[in-house]
């Protein structure tokens, strides 16, 4: 099947997800052009209502809400994506390697990861933040490290399922080297579950970063970020204004969209053999 | 006695999945009289099970009885409301599934499950049902019939479970029982006991039965009449004796002729052994599997290793190939010791010994095209590249009777089971080996396809003078292909020698039981065997 | 119960205890990861040599690490959690009442979410592929995708601001009566329910669908049993183990979800204390709170493990 035909066969839910993600990605990429005002620019009084010049009003410091929403897409999603990628490269590489090679090094790693995973990730993150502080680089490092353990566990399990296959025996009996076995035999068969896992991990990291920001322990002001925008303007809710819910709704929308696309990818890879 | 019990007319069964409708059974008709046993035979995907379940008015999730009628004792099950169908099931029609281990609820005892149907249908009191269950357990020759019902399914053996399931089906004295491959998952020595138990019980209670199987020899023992199915259609039907001796349809003839293949047996030779195993002891983790196994194969000959599940025959293949290094003992080739692990073997050693696995599905990487799967072996082990490699690829494909232009660029998922196994054979041949290990290479295939693979292997062996070790649980395959035979049981070799000596003049009691237990096409085989055992 | 089973459970409990010990080491040792001098880093810009020296003594940094760890873990076991750096009050005083608040909130939420999500999960599994199932499944997927604080604020917006049914702040006081407590804690409990039910529902549905596809359920149907009997006698007993496991695992999630929900509703619980202490870098309080959360999490997962063993007929009745 060509790529186009694959897309055409996608269900409406997946189409919806892809559409939302494309729009959000474009807004994030072209934030400087798409946003009517600057990210940190104070343009009016605090908490102004929706108007011609400020479609979504202004925030607690008098910055344009719409502009910060667009800049926030760039910051929050960008950071979540970077974090997920780091977690993935580290976790998947070690996990696939450990699962393929086996032996005592694999068991030791798996045991260490089990101990780390026995602690809830939010609690572990809070502990580490209290020690290392909440600079952006630290946050990325901390969350990537925590998530890498989850990715490790999954990739290891995937690799272990593949290593019991007889085509791995056939490759061993051909005298294939370890890198060649990983690259030619294991990776192509691990890609479908790993792609799905990437989507789910991204959702998790995205919600995680947003929650930390909301708690005031994530992305620090004055950087625009969806989680902290909710926190900063939450008082408006008690006056019946829904504006502070918009960044939260944006988070939900992005996560739902990723989930819809992942569901479709999983369904395809389980239902169809190519 | 010839009163009609079940009459299926023009039945078509369809399945929907992913928005597409496919036909599982097309325009099938059958008639079954009271007390009669009808054998339903065909290869996988022929629609036997689907038709068997339809005889109970049942269709699996996603399937539908689209057209036709199933008239049971004068009532059409297709038109009947579900509530009335339910009242028949488990009371007047019953089912015995292929895998008793999966079909018993693991959370309830055997007795609870045996008596559930009569209690629920209000046919017996609990005390009556329990008495009846114990009587049936006795009749089906289960050990400790009084107490075995208190056990959970995981606490009894596979053969016993299958008999308990037969008791469960029989307890309401149904008019019809559908047996769906009840002995396929069992070893041959266990199979005989279950077959005999089922046949006697069916005869004594005068129950009609539909007996579904892919094994001709089994159906010949069990059925009064046989119906052959293929691709969802009925191909041929007739009295057992007549159909066995004189099949009409081409497809039936091809099924019947499967077991006639015999490779030319090579004359005994006194050449020095090509491959030897000496005192092999092997374990999985701490569990011992092989306890000092010896064998030797002379050049150009085929050694068949026979054994039931758990005998250690596949482990032996893994030890010789180097995948599982032996704890003790050694493997030799041309008198020289091979390093125990494949890791220590030279590329030349790896090239000379090739292995073909049972499941071509898992032996071929689903993400690698045929061209690359074979090409990789040519490059790694033969050092071929570019044009030379391409030429050799085409040559290999032709040797296994496949079309290079069509099949080289396919993924394994786009090939049939038999084609996949051919590709696996070609991959082994690509290395131009001296010694070929075949581990149950035909047991996952339908009989006609399996026979084609056997013929191919035999031809290749003769053309190339290969030495072969052929591992199988199927005695018919051994008779077809082997020169020499080794029989294994519980990690020991119990008999070894030339085929005729081992198979036809067995001295070891286990080998004798094993040989007797292999079903034969003669419909009188089971009676003869039981009579000789009783004597 | 057979001896093998008892031994298996004892091994699990032992492993759980060992895990907890290692986690305590991790929580304690994490402080040592701090670049440079702990005391200087904690005090930050405003440090003077005197305050640094005082803090060093208070943290016991003049003693070797293992002896400090033994002191710390010994204190934890006897209820002495050290002193807060921010307020100077004993950590035990800070935690005591809040721990009770948090546990009662979690229990309240569990009472709503466990029956609700199991019932919906079973419903979705029984009617799989039909409208009810699709509705429930899409609802669950949406709920999983929403940040906890979004759910909480939407509830405040609807129940407190728009309809005025419940208070938006859950500032419960120790002397409040049960009625008052329920009135104030209902909204946080509902928010927590929504956040955790979706997971529980999806996992319940998956395990029931799995059991319904098994050959023994088909066998039960072929015995002519009624659909309700097939489900109650044949499917449920085998789905029980996975469902119990799902519940325990999700209660562990709930314990963590508490942190965000408490902050939204300004509910005086352990989660809020933890967040405030992290912001203030009040290390002794953070360590104590983390250890308590981790202990709850590990114990619930351990409980899930043990219940899974006890409800497995293969293990319960050995060969």
TrEMBL record, chain A:
Topological category with respect to the lipid bilayer: Multi-pass membrane protein
Single biological process term from Gene Ontology: transmembrane transport
Occurrences of domain ABC transmembrane type-1 (ranges): 73-266
TM spans (from-to): 12-31, 77-102, 122-146, 198-219, 245-266
Coiled-coil annotated residue ranges, if any: none
Major localisation: membrane
Gene Ontology annotations for the cellular component aspect, listed alphabetically: plasma membrane
Keywords noted in UniProt: Cell membrane, Membrane, Transmembrane, Transmembrane helix, Transport
Subcellular location: Cell membrane
CDD domains recorded: TM_PBP2
Family in the record: Belongs to the binding-protein-dependent transport system permease family.
Matching PANTHER family: OLIGOPEPTIDE TRANSPORT SYSTEM PERMEASE PROTEIN APPC, PEPTIDE ABC TRANSPORTER PERMEASE PROTEIN
Protein name: Peptide/nickel transport system permease protein
Annotated source species: Albimonas pacifica
UniProtKB/TrEMBL annotation, chain B:
Keyword Ribonucleoprotein belongs to the record: no
GO cellular component: plasma membrane
Main localization (coarse): membrane
GO molecular function: ATP binding; ATP hydrolysis activity
Keywords assigned by UniProt, alphabetized: ATP-binding, Cell membrane, Membrane, Nucleotide-binding, Transport
Pfam families documented for this protein: ABC_tran, oligo_HPY
GO BP: peptide transport
Localisation per UniProt entry: Cell inner membrane
Keyword Nucleotide-binding (UniProt): yes
InterPro entries attached to this UniProt entry: AAA+_ATPase, ABC_Ni/Peptide_Import, ABC_transporter-like_ATP-bd, ABC_transporter-like_CS, Oligopep_ABC_C, P-loop_NTPase
UniProt topology in membrane: Peripheral membrane protein
Span of domain ABC transporter: 8-256, 275-515
Family listed: Belongs to the ABC transporter superfamily.
Protein name as it appears in the record: Peptide/nickel transport system ATP-binding protein
Species of the source: Albimonas pacifica
Highest classification ranks of the organism: Bacteria, Pseudomonadati, Pseudomonadota, Alphaproteobacteria, Rhodobacterales
Automatic annotation (TrEMBL), chain C:
Domain annotation ABC transmembrane type-1: ranges: 99-304
Superkingdom per UniProt: Bacteria
Positions of transmembrane segments: 12-34, 105-126, 138-161, 181-201, 243-265, 285-310
Gene3D superfamilies linked: MetI-like (1.10.3720.10)
Subcellular location: Cell membrane
KW Transmembrane (keyword) present: yes
Keywords assigned: Cell membrane, Membrane, Transmembrane, Transmembrane helix, Transport
Cellular component GO terms held in the UniProt record: plasma membrane
Molecular functions (GO terms): dipeptide transmembrane transporter activity
Major location (coarse): membrane
Bilayer disposition of the protein: Multi-pass membrane protein
SUPFAM superfamilies, A to Z: MetI-like (SSF161098)
Family: Belongs to the binding-protein-dependent transport system permease family.
PANTHER family for the chain: DIPEPTIDE TRANSPORT SYSTEM PERMEASE PROTEIN DPPB-RELATED
Official protein name in the record: Peptide/nickel transport system permease protein
Organism: Albimonas pacifica
